[in-house]
Specification:
Elements (H helix, E strand, L loop, with lengths): L5 E5 L3 E6 L32 H8 L7 E5 L13 E4 L5 E4 L1 E4 L12 E4 L14 H5 L20 E6 L5 E10 L5 E10 L14 H5 L6
Parallel strand pairs: 4-9, 6-8
Antiparallel strand pairs: 1-2, 2-3, 4-5, 5-7, 8-9, 9-10
Length: about 220
């Protein structure tokens, strides 16, 4: 882990790590009950203020993977989600959870093993991850999903996510896509999701990235 970008809060049984590169300020941690996270306190997080299972529960509410929990041996403490899912956020990113394998992701980002917030506005400077650039860019999308997909009986197993160069996010593996309304809308095992922000069929790619000159490295 990079000591410059990851802050560790050590406890007797578990250690909480906060990755500044991934945090987008959702505040699931800060608004949680109890004294695990207290704004303005130094240190902000004290793992020993809560039982280890509660620490894990609260930290895994973070959809970006910015928070992760490790045991005394340094192993990641988190239950594998029961299914792979993509939540399309109203005017925002894609919240992906499951057994994730994200191509090109740094090895020192432990939180994205099961959770990640992926950019779909095309403006993030931390692609493929969201950095809240959608807010400044005025990205708008109601997060409706109009297709049902081919279906899958097993939305689990490894979900391979490949950010194609200057193109969409290619997902391979059983997955369920949820609309912003919370509806389980699409089921399948292979799908290309827009990340340039210009598709007329969001969240799916329609090839607009080529017309718009989207560059994945900008």
């Amino acid at each position: 882990m990079s000591s410059d970008e990851i802050t560790k809060y050590e406890g007797k049984e578990v250690t909480v790590s906060w990755d500044e590169r991934l945090c987008i300020g959702i505040a699931e941690c800060g608004k949680s009950e109890g004294e695990l996270f207290v704004g303005g306190r130094d240190p902000w997080c004290i793992p020993d203020k809560s039982q280890p299972d509660e620490v894990v529960d609260i930290c895994t509410r973070c959809p970006s993977g910015a928070l992760s929990v490790h045991d005394a041996s340094g192993g990641l403490v988190e239950q594998l989600p029961t299914e792979n899912s993509v939540f399309v956020v109203y005017n925002g990113p894609l919240y992906v959870s499951g057994d994730l394998a994200i191509d090109g992701a740094p090895d020192d980002m432990p939180g994205i093993r099961y959770r990640a917030a992926l950019c779909r506005c095309g403006k993030s400077t931390n692609k493929p991850f969201c950095d809240n650039s959608h807010q400044k860019a005025g990205f708008e999308d109601t997060a409706a999903v109009g297709e049902k997909g081919p279906g899958t009986h097993e939305p689990n197993g490894e979900l391979h996510i490949e950010p194609l160069k200057d193109g969409p996010l290619m997902l391979k593996g059983g997955v369920v896509i949820f609309a912003g309304s919370g509806r389980a809308a699409w089921r399948g095992e292979k799908v290309a999701l827009c990340r340039c922000g210009h598709s007329s069929n969001k969240p799916f790619c329609d090839g607009s990235h080529a017309k718009e000159g989207f560059k994945s490295e900008e």
